[in-house]
Amino acid sequence: MKRKYMLSFPESTGDKPVVCELVRRYDICVNIIQASISPAMAGTMLAELDACAEELTQAVEFLAGRGVGVELLTDKIALREDGCLQCGNCVLACFSGALTIGAPDWKLAFDRDRCVLCRACITACPRGLFGISAE
Amino acid sequence: MSKTYEQINEKIRRGEAVVLTAEEVSRMALTMSPEEIADRVDVVTTATFGAMCSSGAFVNFGHADPPIRMERIELNGVSVSGGLAAVDTYIGATDCDSANPEYGGGHIIEDLVAGKDILLEAWGKGTDCYPRRHIRTYVNIDTLNEAYLYNPRNAYQNYNVAVNSSERTIHTYMGKLYPRSGNASYSTAGELSPLINDPECRTIGLGTHIFLGGGDGYVMWNGTQFDTSKEVNAYGIPVGNARTIAVAGELRGMSTDFLRGVYYEKYGCSLYVGIGVPIPILDADLARRVSIRNDQIETNVVDYGDGNKVIGRTNYAELRSGSITVGGRRIRTVPVSSLAKAREIAAILKSRIETGGFLLSEPVRAMPAFGAVKRLEERSVPFGGRTEVLFGAHREKDLSDF
Ligand code: SF4
Ligand code: SF4
After folding, report:
1. Atom of ligand 2 nearest to the CA of A88
2. What Rg do the C-alpha atoms of chain A give, in angstroms?
3. Do B336 and A105 touch (CB under 8 A)?
């Protein structure tokens, strides 16, 4: 199963290969969606972890044990596609590449796996077609 | 060989007219000369679907009993013009109520077209012939007398690309522009755009029959801010915002597929309007014009975060590739008008003409040969400041006469 997490790394973990160890210890696939690290080596990472339920639980415990903040993201961006004008305003606002519009048909495409839940599209759509749905 | 409007209309009536969309003819032009195209093609359809803030509708409510001279008018809580006789109004697309900014004039027009009931509330001072001072009731498209769209400025001939070099996100009618030129938006349908395909308005003038909001419309006048003074590139295309058209059409028969109220965060309301303009291919010169391609249509990149400075130039082929390079930096580009919808309109107009359901009209007056846009220069205003008004003059005269 796939789960999205916001991981916050305190400075103390900055010089330790926590993610690398995570992957090695558990049979887990880590897809890093967005990461930002400050000069002091503290940082946040939006990542999707893919493993069976048991391993996921262990992985989260492992991360917490290393001082990493783990927040499970259950929200999803909902889009009412039938009212869409294909206008592109949400695409202009979306930075993850989840929302795209382009050749050949120039119709809106939404790749939910790439969504980083930044919510920029919600206010950018001039028809108010986006919302949050809890899982 | 040149053709006349009447000859083309005769072919349309017989169901024999050859009609292509502007994209189709641009492809045809890769292997055919303008003369060959003029021989083969009768009409080329162009289209655009985007936010057009300078739009609105005139409506007449009819008189109630007892009658009221409506001086302040609200529709679904949005204040609209109270300055047109007793029961006429103009619903401006950007009219809105500051307490509920997400619903405005554009949405009222959409709701009218959708056949919905709309709450009308109006006030008057009460006069001898219009004694009533207040009315509150519902109206809809069937209860109204006249209801027609009249848009003073639509279908801009080319438009700027918007970027924002400032340090904060800005919210504009060109969308959400991220700081430090984080993205760029553009809004013209490129080679499909109406006034790009007839750049000097040889066939688009007062009385040109067009597709408007799903129904029938006409070009009524040159649009406001009509500008012929922009630099023209090697292909005869003005670089940046140039000519515009004013259009009108009966609201009944229009469709919410092509007329949509919108709200931009921290900006306000507007109306998405779908327009399709047929270009008759009267001769090889027009065939050459409609053959224009995206890479030949250039426009300016304008910095909305720094006093609308022009910071670069690009073309629509580059814009549609997904990124442009300005000052050595790559910027992601996204359209904020709908090419998919514009294509749909061009195809609908094409089939209406092919099946004889849409005839062309020759303009009764050409667009102005010259037009430039003045700025509003501010002058110092003394205390009180009103210039001499007729109202005051009357009063003084009255006093001295009696
Ligand atoms: S929430 Fe952010 S990342 Fe997700 S679709 Fe909306 S704009 Fe894109
Ligand atoms: S901003 Fe809204 S209407 Fe425009 S393309 Fe995105 S979802 Fe569709």
Report:
1. 5
2. 17
3. no
Side chain identity at B51, as an amino acid letter?
Answer: A
- From the CA of A95, the nearest ligand is 1
Residue closest to A67 by CA, chosen among A2, A109, A15, A121: A15
The answer, yes or no, to whether any atom of ligand 1 lies below 6 A from the CB of A46, is: no
Residues near A71 by beta carbon (within 8 Å), at least 6 away in sequence: A5, A6, A7, A8
Provide ipTM, 2 decimals.
Answer: 0.92
Classify A75-134 by CATH class: alpha beta
Listed by start position, the domains of chain A span 2-72, 75-134
* Residue B97: per-residue pLDDT: 92
The SS3 assignment for A11 reads helix
**Tokens (6 digits) for B158:** 């080319």
Confidence (pTM)? 0.90
Ligand 1 atom with minimal separation from the A119 CA: 1
**Does the domain at residues A2-72 carry the CATH identifier 3.30.70.260?**
yes
Phi, psi of A133 (to 5 degrees): -125, 130
User: Residues B44, B260, B195, CA angle at the centre, nearest 5°?
Assistant: 30
Q: Encoding tokens for residue B161?
A: 């690309």
User: Based on C-alpha coordinates, what's the Rg of chain B?
Assistant: 24
Amino acid at B256: T
CA distance B94 to chain A (A): 13
Model confidence pLDDT, tens digit, residues B285-319 = 999 999 999 999 999 999 999 999 999 999 999 99
